[in-house]
Amino acid sequence: MGSPVILDDGWIASCVGFYCGKNYAVTKFLMAHDSPDPRFSAWIAALDERHLATLTLPEVGRALRALSSCYVERRSRLAEGAALDGAGKRAAFALFYAPLHFQTTAHILGELGAPQVREIVDLGCGTGAAGSAWALAAPSARITGLDRSAWAIAEANWTYRQLGIRGRAVRQDLVRAPLPARRGLGILAAYAVNELDDTARATLLPRLLDAAARGTVLLVVEPIARRLAPWWAAWESAFLNAGGRADEWRFPSRLPDRQRQLAKSAGLNPQELTARSLFLPGRGGGTADPR
Question: Has this prediction a pTM greater than 0.90?
Fold first, then answer.
């Protein structure tokens, strides 16, 4: 093994979905949505009770630092589940990255016009955070979460219960899972496609595009760092050619107190949430504000 890579906060941030710089633009959406949903606040409090029952804050902070570096130094191990290979990393993911993914996805959906769907399939759902953001924005929707990790599935189902969301998560390989295609259905792949290998991504893309051609709304969300995703250009071109859109997002951070404490404990200082997305409204599917 070679010498360890020295990671500065800005580089880690661009890889995992936030930015630690001093300047940012306050978007209209965040200005209009400054007060958190009480369900989100209650979920954050419940996460504390669930994951800090047996671990201390410094322990989770150290695990968070290790988890962040995993996305930079050891990306080849992500498909093997390296990001969740210990209790500390699992707690760090649930306590820190899940709320960030929820907030970022909620902001993106707000900018896209919160596509209204009746069903959501969340590919690589993790703890269910990003999919829950869409489900809360489309109150009548029922969600199905798919993930290979048994721990993630249990956590996602717990998240749905905490947030009062209809649906369930099941253990399934997102590449092999049947992809329904119809109007009123949304498929989300948030922070999941980048963890697939090239063969799996090549298999998934045409299946997603076929679903969109038959009316399914598609949303893909990933960290903003292009160096970690050489595959993005091909996916972006495919979505644009199919009538979709590609965006890069920067939102001022509104982290709850606990998540700010964890960031500080891990030596991080997120001031801006960042992501990029691909969106296809589907033929006769959801709507998005034109740009």
Answer: no
Residues contacting residue 48 through CB under 8 Å, at least 6 positions apart: 95, 258
Question: From CA 193, how far away is CA 57, in angstroms rounded?
Answer: 30
Mean per-residue pLDDT, 244-260:
88
Euclidean distance between CA atoms 70 and 88, whole angstroms: 13
- The pLDDT tens digits of the residues spanning 266-285 come to 777 777 889 999 999 987 54
Give the separation between CA 98 and CA 47, rounded to whole angstroms.
10
Asked if the structure places residue 287 within a domain, the reply is no
291 or 114: whose pLDDT is higher? 114
Q: Cβ(222)–Cβ(9) under 8 Å?
A: no
Q: Which pLDDT score, from 0 to 100, does residue 25 have?
A: 31
Which CATH number covers residue 91? 3.40.50.150
Confirm if 265 and 60 have CB atoms less than 8 A apart.
yes
* Residue 254, SS3 per DSSP: coil
Q: Which residues contact 115 (CB under 8 A, 6 or more apart)?
A: 109, 138, 186, 217, 219, 281, 285, 286, 287, 288
Compute the distance between CA of residue 62 and CA of residue 276 in angstroms, rounded to an integer: 27
The parent domain of residue 161 ranges over 9-280
For residue range 111-128, list pLDDT tens digits in order.
998 788 999 999 999 999
Question: Tokens representing 34?
Answer: 């400054």
Q: Which residues contact 81 (CB under 8 A, 6 or more apart)?
A: 148, 149
Q: How many domains does the chain have?
A: 1
DSSP classification of residue 23: -
